[in-house]
Amino acid sequence: MCGITALISKEGNPENKNLISKVLDSFPYRGPDDDGIDYVDINEKVIFGHLRLSILDISKAGHQPMYDHSGRYVMIFNGEIYNYKEIKLKYLSDVKFKSGTDSEVLLELYARMKEKIFDIINGMFAIIIYDKVKDEIFFTRDRLGIKPLYICNLKDEILLCSEPKAAVISNFVNFEPNEEAIFDFLAFGERDHTDSTFFQYVKRIQPGTFGYIKKDMTIMYEEYWNIKNNQTKHLGNLKLEDIVDKVDELINDAIKYRLISDVPVGTSLSGGIDSSLVAALASKYHDNKFTSVSAIFEGEEVDESKFSRLIVKENNLRGVFTSPNPDEVIKELDNILEIQGEPIGSMSPLVQYFVMKEAKKNNLTVMLDGQGADELFAGYTHYIDTYFKELSGNFHWRKLYRKYKEHMAFSGKDIEYKNLIKIMLKGVLEKFLPQKIYEYRIKNNKLKLFKSGVFEKYYESSRVKLPKRLSLKENLLYSTTISSLPNLLMYEDRSSMAFSIEARVPYLDHNLVEFMASLKTDQIYEIMISKVILRKISERYIPEDIAWRKDKIGFAAPEKKWMQKMKTEIYNRLSENSWVMNFANFNYLKELFENFENLSIHEYRYIWRCYSVEWWYNKFLNS
């Protein structure tokens, strides 16, 4: 994992080297082991900058910008290509390599295969390559957007970089808030769901996309991977037992790949199913005693310490535990928000920051994580609601009754017929009511959050619409590629990079993602239990008390307690004259503050979003 940047100028500028240095200085934590800045063309119009976090072959042989053996191609690269050894043997056996890095294998593969590399490589990556002969730049991101890459196009100058704030901090572009992005965030909690960022003029390179910057400064984009177009056919007849066996094999393969490293590897462990399975399998394949890092909050509603301790004991792990208290959180808050670089939707990412901080103290440079399992295996409770409404909307009421009965039995509850009738009515209404009526109820609930006229102004042009996503399959794909997961991956990237740690996510191996996306809804919920496929795999490796847990917490924070501790700080920042009040309804916020100790988690999170936007605006306005 590294930090990368490239500046392409139409005319060239003697100050470009200085600007690239400022970009790299804005995220020094991304690569503490080595750095390089090179003009890569003869006219000094293209300059590459690289910060290296050494993972494979930690010698100087992995220095970047890296040149292929012919001298035609120059590359900067952030990420890992897990199958680089197989690629080396199968496609590049005649190449004399100078290093043991995956970077060099990737570069030589591109020199030979160009865009066909996407049919071969398995990994997470952001790549920029300059072709000296064609005088053009190739750039790309991995299929699911695990590794970040941003672009700021000023026509005569184009900047590519690993973090959006770098474009502003380096003075490449002036700070200007993206008001539509801020509206989406405040209204719906959405971010990283389009190519926009909170910084006007700075865009995300979309996952599964590559592009070329031509010598006339035009940019061409092309999608090389889409989850809908990469589903395996003919899986509809697979029985649950066969699916479980295949997914078990894919998860094991993914974890083995993600243990490849020349530096210490550990794992995040919450005590939930996802992270517990990763920890158990990783310890099975790791040569030495494997280290897990857990955030625990004993005595709190979100406490999972008994489960994480059980996994540590059962797998003979070296368990490390951290328990950040409200005072520690407040002390670190400015640093956390600065590292994130954009507003964050809740306090949960703060927990991940403290986990990574503890990992760094324990000399871990690579951390595995269970991110993505909820989206792939339908782990969130709202997916069950979606499935029930889908059955009802399609008048499959006998099936709905059977599935509802299974669900309630697993939850240890009796059938609630009033709730069942409510689900039936809701499913039918949402399917057959016109879109405008469906939207009206949701929009009506949002109006109170904003000052007069704001919702109407921004909603019509907003990138977040309210589709009737009745299909569970559509909901899962939407969460994986647009709504939930891209946001979580960005939090994880910045929290881990804050401590120069590479985060790896086995559940997002594209082979596993494509297989799960190919299953029918009835296969995902053959038994009406959340994540039933993953649970059946987990019971092979971890205690049943965890594999068949009925509660779901994850790396959650005691948000209410932390928010109450921060009440004065938040109240002082959110005054009537605060910048965020150009959007937010100050009178509504006042009402919330008057009842601060008794708010719902959704109300606390709305206050937090307003606070986070206000903090971000003041930070970058002053920078």
Q: How would you describe this structure to a colleague?
A:
The strands form three sheets. The protein has a six-stranded antiparallel sheet with strand order 2-3-1-9-8-10, covered by helices on one side. A six-stranded antiparallel sheet has the order 4-5-6-7-11-12, covered by helices on one side. Helices cover 44% and strands 14% of the residues. It contains 26 helices and 17 strands. The mean pLDDT is 93. It is of the alpha+beta class and 623 residues long. The two termini are 27 Å apart.
Would you summarize the structure shown here?
With 623 residues, the protein is an alpha+beta fold.
Q: What does the radius of gyration come to?
A: 25 Å
Helix content: 40-55%
Structural class: alpha+beta
**Percentage of residues in DSSP E strands:** 5-15%
What composes the largest sheet? 6 strands, antiparallel
Number of strands: 17
Low-confidence stretches: none
How many helices in DSSP terms?
Answer: 26
Distance between the termini: 27 Å
* Sequence of strands across the biggest β-sheet: 2-3-1-9-8-10
Overall shape: globular
Average pLDDT, rounded to a whole number, is 93
